[in-house]
Amino acid sequence: MKECQMVTNFTRAQVSIPGNERVAMTPFGARMFIHALRTETGGAFGIWDTFTAPGEGPAPHTHTRETEMFRVVQSTYRFWCGGEEFDAPPGTIVVLPPHVEHAWRNIGSELGQMLGIATPGGCEGMFRDIAALGLGATSMDIAAVEARYGIINDETKALAITY
């Protein structure tokens, strides 16, 4: 059996010091701190923290390019993935496969925090691009960015139909 090897040119340590992170935003408006971009890791991964208000989370969506991993740091989240539903208190690690629809929501009463990792990296750039749209961005503006990053959801499906 052959071993699977990821080929990258990741040859330097990537260090994210508190206070020096890059600020970004999720499609649903949650604040994020990006710790490592794919361009800094030879494409191997991207890392970020997401801060989610109680009751907030993304709409169901599918990643076509990467596996996502989350570690719940603060509050409790509910995850939906491929027809399964489960709660994730602090300390829980959740790995979400590509090509499987999923969503999550902060079901706690406090600001939630999750550390996210995507491999291969790339989708963390989407969060920077969404933040760059500014506060006046429409759902279709955001969907256009998501589509460029291989995200499938109701908005990106509608966008594809209109083009």
UniProtKB/TrEMBL annotation:
Residues 53-113 form the Cupin type-2 domain. Gene3D superfamilies: Jelly Rolls. InterPro entries: Cupin_2, QDO-like, RmlC-like_jellyroll, RmlC_Cupin_sf. It holds the Pfam family Cupin_2. This is Cupin 2 domain-containing protein. It comes from Rhizobium gallicum.
